[in-house]
Amino acid sequence: MAEVLANGVRFHVQRISPHRGADARPAQPVVFIHGLGMDNMSSFYYTLANPLAHAGAEAILYDLRGHGLSERPRTGYRVEDSVDDLAALLDALGVEGPVHLVGNSYGGTVAIGLAVANADRVASMVLIEAHFTVAGWAEKMEATLCRIGADLAAENKKQWMKKYGRKLSRMAELADDLINGTTFITDLLTVNPIDPSRLQKLTFPVRAIYGECSDVVDYGHQFKEFVPSCELTLLPGFDHSILIDAPAQLREIVLDWFATQASVTT
After folding, report:
1. What is the pLDDT of residues 130-144, one digit of tens each?
2. Is the CB of residue 24 less than 8 Å from the CB of residue 266?
3. Cα–Cα distance list, 242 to 44, 57, 104, 198, 246 (Å)
């Protein structure tokens, strides 16, 4: 475990060294970016990060500001802040050259934001149930976050305890503080939609993976339309929680895809 100061915030970071002797390994590190609310880097640790490290890739995981064991400032939760955090974190870690990004849900928003702001820092992207800041994004996010915020309010905590059990009750408390005790929602919704023409300029390989029944699957179709290098995969019968509900299928897709990227770059 390590703490890294970047963009004025203390981040919890994990680096997993590549397994020696592995056949297929991307030369650049693979950076994992988790989703919002109750999520943190642990959702990637065993599902994708360790398998990729065993296959030969260096994996970098971190908790977003306000999440997990990272610092939780009262302000600074715009999408632009998350993108700046990632860029500053790579600088603080001494990571030079482009990296592979794996973003789940809002983590995909951050990955796309970095790619649009500085495509030279991105070798490829894997987007898992990603949504991104096209027109209408803020309105959808507001509805979702307000619903979660209401559920996490003090009078409804018993429902979350019953739903998630003692193991995750602390995560619910942290999410409550994030959503109801900071400028998280206000900041997050202060966003300028991405001009699709900027997405069309992205040329690096992208693999987008969504549950066929997901409530954000339209973002996957939109991204494929905007980005010619995007390969879209839909998992039949699954919704937004494919990282939790379909880890084996997801792992197979991602490992195969990164093996292909390694063979292309060697």
Report:
1. 999 988 888 888 887
2. no
3. 12, 22, 10, 28, 5
CA distances to 26, 152, 188, 196 from 222, in Å: 28, 32, 21, 10
Which strand (E) or helix (H) includes residue 2? strand 2-6
Residue 63: CB partners within 8 Å, gap ≥ 6?
11, 12, 34, 40, 41, 69, 70
- How many angstroms separate the CA atoms of 13 and 41, rounded? 9
Strand order in the sheet with 2-6: 2-6, 9-16, 59-62, 30-33, 99-104, 122-128, 206-211, 230-235
Give residue for tokens 């149930």. Answer: 129
**128 within 8 A of 143, measured Cβ to Cβ:** no
Confidence of residue 68 (pLDDT cuts 50, 70, 90): very high
Provide the CA 141 distance to its chain's centre, in angstroms: 15
Residue ranges with strand state E in 110-221: 122-128, 206-211
Is 207 strand, coil or helix?
Answer: strand
With contact defined as beta carbons under 8 Å apart, do 110 and 33 qualify?
yes
Q: Are strands 2-6 and 59-62 parallel, antiparallel or unpaired?
A: unpaired
Q: What integer pLDDT is reported at residue 249 of this predicted model?
A: 96
pLDDT in tens, 139-181: 888 887 777 666 666 555 555 555 555 545 677 777 788 888 8
The residue assigned the tokens 């999520």 is 39
Q: How far, in Å, CA of 204 to CA of 120, rounded?
A: 10
Residue type, 51: P
